[in-house]
Specification:
By secondary structure, the chain is an all-alpha fold. The protein has three helices and no strands. About 75% of the residues lie in helices and about 0% in strands.
């Protein structure tokens, strides 16, 4: 059995939410998923420019300026 992704867990929480905290947890999981993708891109970048762009995107996500 494959492990569910953060997005799948977030979708499950949204679909089966019992209260507002479940929806907030789903939103947090989506944000963590996006941060993970950007962090992976930053580390695996082939060029310094690509890595720097991913770093800037991560800062924007942390500050709440983009993504989810």
């Amino acid at each position: 059995m494959n492990k569910p992704t953060l997005k799948q867990l977030a979708d499950f929480l949204d679909d089966n939410a019992r209260n507002e905290m479940d929806n907030q947890a789903a939103m947090a999981l989506r944000k963590y998923s996006e941060l993970f993708k950007v962090a992976h891109e930053m580390v695996s970048a082939k060029t310094h420019e690509h890595s720097k762009a991913a770093y800037c995107e991560m800062i924007d996500l942390i500050k709440g300026k983009g993504g989810v």
